């Protein structure tokens, strides 16, 4: 995906600003009053810049290259200009472009120039700290920069800066270390509620909801009824599966502060967590009526309405959110496409999916398009669509598109073609465990048992704890009456890895039946069927009952399975063999 920066005009505007900047000329203060005033925060005076041809060229090169997606050239040009001019505006722009390009080395250099040339700028210090935190090194400097921001903050600023600590350290991969840094930074401010809220956020990020709850309780002691603390406490309670307690907290707060919008939204979201979708929808609609231009509320109403099948309401509000330019436009188009699919309007669904642009939902949209084409009499077009999409996709998306293609081939019972497609990709990614497993299952369908075993043993070597690889190999051997002792050993090992898996219990029952232990087989199969009344488990359970002369019980189980899944292959083959139909 190509990143687009600001157009040519942005570079021209910056050049004009440099020409207009006053010269940097700070005279020494003439008396103590002036000296005192000089220590107060002021808007920094900008250096006079002579806009040389070289500087102009670098700025324009940076902007034009950025607008064309050539971020490497743009970063290099702007960083060179920042070093040459020592102007905080140029350094800030260089930092922004380097971050877009994910060039952390250049971003660090540019942010240092920005901070050095505008030492009073909290933005510069915060950005530098965030970059260093993302890199995971020089953590002492990160802490020093954030401590300076806090120390130089006025009361109102201090609250915002305390609450911004977690955001500044969010890029850090080591969440425990980030929490330690925040604990040290807030130590001088523990008499203030925001310090404890910052501690609560850090603990929550560090997967310590109990510690977070303790910190947020202290914040509420220092500032009773604080909306932000109430919302965070409710989120922690939901995370700890105390949803009723969270609802009680939020309703109690709203009884005293009915105007609290953030708590009302938290209440509606908690109703969703409680799966009380009707109440959540009513709450979100009430909030939207009070804030009719709020596109996030439009989106929330649509999502909850779609969840309960109120497609007319969902469609109306998804469309409103699109018209309001909601940032999740492609997610909205995907939802509208699924609603059209569920409402059996495939043409409309295709229109929505074709509108999904490049980004996180693009591959999902291409898979849905192929699914609709295949289900509407155009399987060849569906396969071509997936192959065309894969030709332009990133490697991770290519893999997803491949699996979608294999699924379509399998659903069309073109097992040889599906296996051939998987094998083509495995040549390049022989250690992809998911593809190895899929290849083995397809090889079994076309009776290439040697290839199936090769794939499963390769998978087991790569992932010794892959329970379903052991189970698949053991079941296939048992089903064909081959190496039954070895088959049982494989299945029992799979069961050790996944003790309550109904499919592995089914395999164990089946191999015991194959080894002439029907009573023991019956026990395992009944346990598997109780966990999951799957048609294949029903086929095996019914066959064991049939072998024991309990034909009526077998028939009841088969009939129930047939009603749920009349097209199941294993069930059909079992009934044909034993009942003759």
From TrEMBL:
TPR repeats: 535-568
Top-level division of the source organism's lineage: Bacteria
UniProt cross-references to Pfam families, sorted A to Z: TPR_16
Keyword Signal found: yes
Keywords from the named record: Repeat, Signal, TPR repeat
Keyword Transmembrane (UniProt): no
Signal peptide boundaries: 1-27
UniProt xrefs under PROSITE patterns: TPR
Name of this protein: Tetratricopeptide repeat protein
Organism: Pseudazoarcus pumilus
